[in-house]
From TrEMBL:
It holds the Pfam family Sugar_tr. It is a multi-pass membrane protein. It is found in: Cell membrane. The chain crosses the membrane at residues 20-44, 56-79, 91-109, 115-134, 163-183, 203-220, 253-277. Belongs to the major facilitator superfamily. Metabolite:H+ Symporter (MHS) family (TC 2.A.1.6) family. The lineage of its organism: Bacteria, Bacillati, Actinomycetota, Actinomycetes, Actinomycetales. May be a proton symporter involved in the uptake of osmolytes such as proline and glycine betaine. It comes from Scrofimicrobium canadense. Residues 18-289 form the Major facilitator superfamily (MFS) profile domain. One of its GO terms (cellular component) is plasma membrane. The keyword Transmembrane helix applies. This is Putative proline/betaine transporter. It comes from the Bacteria.
Length: 289
């Protein structure tokens, strides 16, 4: 979403409300996003992609996980356009609800043993929906935070949405860890038990509904920023925001895209893949000297 070119105006939302709407909402959406990432390693290869070869099952699970990255830029374009046309509040509420519904439904999906190939197909559809939703979240939350920031504190307020990603990641993995401890494997605490694979893994996805309700309650209390209202009143809302962005800031868009590409490659290598490595028995032997 592009920032509107309006004169400085007194923020209409209190600092606490802005911080809560940007930080809490982003935390919840990234919690939903990362819950899937953890399940893609621990659960989905066994329940949705059964195979005699565990590596094949894991790669199939990762392929669906990565599908969200294809939907993410599509969601960014869609929600970015919506935010510049209809307002930031509408966009953030819509993206949060989309993410919450998709995550909640994953918690009730039947497995491959129950409905066959339809199970991974439905999982793929819901994962694409998650990616579509997250595309409108982070940039939208950052824009809300900075547009509503007091004069001289835009950079400071812009940091709060960025905290949502690591906090959501910690909550998602922490909840899985607690459930795994509560439903231990009888032989090895590092392995997943039958109870965990049977129903325990669904809890974090279903719990998402509670968090989304909290996020909606916070975001619905927001009012549109003075900058957006003033631009709307003066008729400065662009008919095609994406076109103007690419026409005037194409170089910045390309640079920003590749910067984030490098960031996410490193992030998911050190989180999702590391979880795979850390939970897989290794047969490597020390070399002979």
């Amino acid at each position: 979403m592009s920032a509107t070119s309006a004169k400085e105006a007194k923020p209409l939302n209190s600092p606490g409300r802005v911080i809560a709407a940007s930080l809490v909402g982003t935390t919840i959406e990234f919690y939903d996003f990362y819950v899937y990432a953890t399940a893609a390693v621990l659960v989905f290869p066994k329940l949705f992609f059964p195979s005699e070869n565990s590596t094949t099952a894991l790669l199939a699970s990762f392929a669906v996980f990565g599908a969200a990255m294809v939907a993410r830029p599509v969601g960014a374009v869609f929600y970015g356009h919506m935010g510049d046309k209809r307002g930031r509040k509408t966009t953030l509420v819509a993206s949060l609800m989309t993410m919450g519904i998709a995550t909640f439904l994953i918690g009730f999906l039947p497995t491959f043993d129950q409905i066959g190939i339809l199970a991974p197909v439905l999982l793929l559809a819901l994962r694409l929906t998650q990616g579509f939703a997250i595309g409108g979240e982070w940039s939208g939350a950052a824009l809300v935070a900075t547009e509503n920031a007091p004069e001289g504190k835009r950079g400071w307020y812009g940091t709060f949405p960025q905290l949502g990603a690591p906090i959501g990641f910690i909550i998602a993995n922490g909840l899985f860890l607690i459930i795994n401890w509560a439903l231990p494997h009888p032989d090895d605490p590092l392995m997943t038990s039958d109870a965990f694979l049977g129903w325990g893994w669904r809890i974090p996805f279903i719990f998402s509904a509670v968090m989304v309700i909290i996020g909606l309650w916070v975001r619905l209390k927001l009012t549109e920023s003075a900058a957006f209202k003033q631009a709307e009143k003066q008729g400065k809302i662009s008919k095609l925001p994406l076109g103007e962005t690419l026409r005037h800031h194409f170089r910045e868009v390309v640079l920003g895209t590749f910067i984030m590409l490098a960031t996410y490659v490193l992030f998911y290598l050190t989180t999702t893949f590391a979880l795979t490595y850390g939970t897989t028995a290794q047969d490597a032997k020390p070399p002979d000297f």
